[in-house]
Queue: 2 jobs
Job 1
Amino acid sequence: MKPFPKTEMAENGMVVAPHHSAADAGLNILKSGGNAIEAAIATAASLSVHYPHMTGIGGDAFWLIYDPEEGVSFIDASGYSGGEVKPEIYSDVSDIPFRGKLAANTVAGAVSAWSLAYEKSQANWQGSMSASQLMSEAVLAAENGTTVTASLAETLKDKANELQLDPFFADVYYPQGNTPRAGESLIQAALGNTLKTIGEKGFDDFYRGQVSEDIAFDFAHRQGLITHDDLKNHHAKWQPYLELETSHATLFNASAPTQGVASLMILGLFDRWVEKLPDIDSADYVHLLVEATKIAFSHRNRMDTSATPEELQAWLTPDYLDQLSEQIDLNKARPWGEQTSPGDTTWFGAIDSKGRVVSAIQSIYHEFGSGFMLPKTGVVWQNRGCSFSLDPTNVRALAPHKKPFHTLNPAIALFKDGRVMAYGTMGGDGQPQTQAAVFSRYAYYGEDIQTAINKPRWLLGRTWGNSSETLKLESRFPDSFSLILREKGHDFEWLSSLDSSVGHAGALIRHTSSTIEGAYDPRSDGKSSGF
């Protein structure tokens, strides 16, 4: 095992991303005089090329932005289901499939997040970088080739039987019928041309320009579900965020349709134990956060995706959290039967020299999303809409112009001593759990932020390709945890020592001295890039 990374320190700016080239792309923007929003856009575009199994411009995004003068703001760039997406389309199946054209049933909103954030950068932050400059590294990597990482190669190998069913996908990601190996070069020429076009014509072109026409043409030609009108009618929006006051900081997260409320509830419940916290390296610490997760997920799973922030804030009131915390027994596990969701995602963050912060998350849901390729643009479309239910009585029942449930949720914390922290992770239902592990280790126990990410983690619920809903722990935890957790009533199993199913976390912290700390996940191909 290679040595664990150490916390990166910088004074002028930093970017953290789960791929090193994407982090460097954002850093280069900062070094060229760009701000945190501009750096984050460049990072997002670069991730779409270097980490196509985890994210892409055919997916959705949510951004939290912090400005010392303006406070926190939140962008919801998730897409609605198409206007023609109706339950009768799926009359021959019991569930919405994960792959293919029937899975590609919601508008992709990621690029609209770039557009709305870019407007803020230009209007409020005196942004100096052109959209073309922000796309340049991603365009070059797509046209000239990105080096295939081990995780990308493994995904293409493991999912070949599903993904090669789409001939246009196979043409790009299985060139000449071969599965790319780690270290080889992968060219995504059509995607590069699309990124170049939206750089030259503006991000809005993805929805109301030549790129949107090409997308709509391919959907129609391939008998897909998304139309030109669906694209034209999509806009990212500034929305109210959720917040939670804790002993150490005020925490901010995304509102519906995301599970941001669950992330806040877990830490809100944990905060009720601040006077009697278990040892950080004990099984009781894991048990406490797992029990908080069960309570939070039971609430989240009955949440309507159109729930208002006011409705969700009611779950975060001190009195309500006090009541819920009484349900936690340190000696006994609650019954667990909730269904959970896997998911591939990328979290990335940026801080500039003026202390402005972006915490963003962008995803196509499962590995390569639906696997449905649009050949004119090189865009692989997300399958977020497979989280809809075909049961008309379900709170998440499929309907036209409806937002699906999202696991995506970026986080920001404003500490009482003036520190600002951006943090997040990929990992579907693991996202709230990993956020809780990283934040609690750092804020409550004083762990170094990189150590907080390096240390072993857990997951309650499913991993990819595995329907098991058990509690899973990385094998670097002590062997004794197995007996202790089973005695408490947990259905338990081990993972590998550094397992991607517990997420690819990242964090950035700016101190009042202007020093910036950054940490990335050794489970990823990431980097903390600062100067």
Job 2
Amino acid sequence: MNELPQRPLTETDLLKYVKKWNIRGFRGIFSRDTLPKVIHKNEKGIINLDDSSGQGTHWVAYSKRNKLVKYFDSYGDLRPPIEVEMYLSSNRGVIQYNYKRYQHMNSVNCGHLCLLFLKGEIE
């Protein structure tokens, strides 16, 4: 994580590292109200839990392989907003949530942790 900027990551930052680290199957970065209609059979993505009209609140990530969708929230043990849950479970996806807390309140490393999750370094 040392090569990542020591500040909150923007969408541009996240895309830069997705490309740099060659994260395969990456579909995109979305706000919770701009998600595609249906999830693909295999894909990865990053979602901001704010609406697209907002400034952004918190990054989460997911990785879907066949029917299993791994949902990563660095705060751990938090269910996603209903829009996100509906998207992840579309196309018969079964959601697996993480329960381990990686981030503390008032810290700004959620984007960093999402990248590490997509890279396969944390679950």
